[in-house]
Request: fold
Amino acid sequence: MTYCVGMLLREGLVMITDSRTNAGIDNINHFRKLHIFEKPGEVALALATSGNLSVTQSVVSLLTEGLPDPVTGNLETLLDSPSMFKAAQLVGRAIREVDRLDGQGLLKHGGSFDATILLGGQMRDRRLRLFMVYSAGNFIEATADTPFLQIGEHKYGKPVLDRAVTYDTELYEALKIGLISMDSTMRSNLAVGLPLDIAVLRRDAMQFELSHRIESGDPYFEDLRRRWSEALRAAHQAIPIPPYARRLSQSAN
Amino acid sequence: MTYCVGMLLREGLVMITDSRTNAGIDNINHFRKLHIFEKPGEVALALATSGNLSVTQSVVSLLTEGLPDPVTGNLETLLDSPSMFKAAQLVGRAIREVDRLDGQGLLKHGGSFDATILLGGQMRDRRLRLFMVYSAGNFIEATADTPFLQIGEHKYGKPVLDRAVTYDTELYEALKIGLISMDSTMRSNLAVGLPLDIAVLRRDAMQFELSHRIESGDPYFEDLRRRWSEALRAAHQAIPIPPYARRLSQSAN
Reply:
C-alpha cells in the first residue's frame, strides 16, 4: 500500500510519501516513491508514485531516459519538458506506454494495471503547479480551492488535511500537518510505513530547499506522534459527556 | 452512503448510525438505519444496516415478520431467537433470502446485492454480543481485543476510534468518541449526514437505557463539533515546526 500527499500552497510545494510496498501481505519491502528531477535555477520537479510497483518504476525510468516524440521521434525526458502541463502530459504518455507494453500481460496473470502519480514543481518563468495523473494517462490539477492531492490510502489521513490545510498555510506548517496525516494513516493501515520521504520547494526558487528521508526513530517525528496522540486524548477528554444519558428508551423498528 | 459503528464494552453496548441515503448523487433521502428490537427484561437487540436500501429494508421486514424454519416451517422472528448466535444466523439467513429473491434482478439492472449489518444485544442469562453480518450471510464477532465494528464509510472515522476506544472505555465516553468519529466522517464524505440515531444498552439491563435521535442543530452535538475542531487546531499548532527546514537539497534519480 502507499500514501502520498502533495500540497500546492501560496509559498510553495510540499510532497510527502511513505515507502512501504507489499506484494501480498507476506512480501513487504521499502522502495522510494518520491523522485526528484532538478536542474537548479531552471526546473525543479517531484514525482510521487502509487500503484503497481513494476508499472511506476518503469514510468520513472521512461521519464528519465526519455520517450520518443510521436512526431519527430526525438527522445523527450521529464527534465526537457517545456512546461508543467507538457510534463504532466509526458507522465500520462509514459503511463500509457507501460500499459501498452505490460498491461495485457498483467491482466493475463491476474494482476491489474494501476498507477497514480503526483507531479509537482516549477520551471523558470512559469507557474508552480501540482497534478495528479491517473492510470488512463489523464490528469487533474490542484488549485487554491483544493490545494492538496492524495494518492493511495488517502481516507484515514484526509480529515486532518480537510480541517487544517488551506492555500495560505505556511510551508513548514503544511509539512507538519502532512506528517500528522501520515501518522494517522500509518496507525490505521500497517501497509503504510516508515521511512517517509519529504520534499519542499519554495515558489520561484527552482531548487528544492528540502529533500529528506525520515527514518524510523527520527526524534522529531516520534515527538510529533506522541504529542499528537496526547493532544487528541486531551481533546476528547475535555468534551463533556453526552447529555442524552438515561432517557427512557423507546421501542422502535 | 452510510456510516455505522457498534461498540462492545465492559459496561455495555453503544450503536450509532447516520441516516443519509443516496440513490445516485442527486437523490438523497433520510432513512432510519438503526432498528431496536426489545422485550424489556427479556431481550434487547439493535440492528444497524448499510448497503442497498431495498435489501436492508427487506431484511429488517423479514426479521420482524419471521422466516420459516427450514425444518419445522415455523416462522422465526429476531425477537424469538434463543441466543445471540442464533440471532446472527437468522440475520444471515434473511440476507440470503433477499439475495435469492432479488439478487439476480438487481444484477440484471446494473445494481449490486450489498448489505452489511451490525447486530448487537443481549438475551436474559446470556452474554452481551456484537456481530457484523456480511452480504454472504456469514458473520464475525467483536471481542475485548477489537471492541468496535464499523460498516459503510468507515475509514475517515477509524483513527479516533483506534486511539481512544478500548473494551474498558466507559459507556458514555465511548458514545462521545463515536460521535467524534461520526463528525470526522461527515466532514470528509457529504453522503454521510444528520440526523444520527444512537442507542445505549447497559450490560445485563435487557432494556435500552437510551434510544435517541440527534437532529440537525442539536446543541450538544454542535458544541462537540466546535470543541473538537478547536482542539485539533490547538493540537497541531502546539506541535513544533519540523527541524528539517533549509537543509541542502539532494538531487536524486
User: Anything to note?
Assistant: The domain at 3-238 of chain A is CATH 3.60.20.10 (Glutamine Phosphoribosylpyrophosphate, subunit 1, domain 1). The mean pLDDT of chain A is 93. Chain A touches chain B through 62 residues (CB under 8 Å). The first strand of chain A starts at residue 3 and ends at 8.
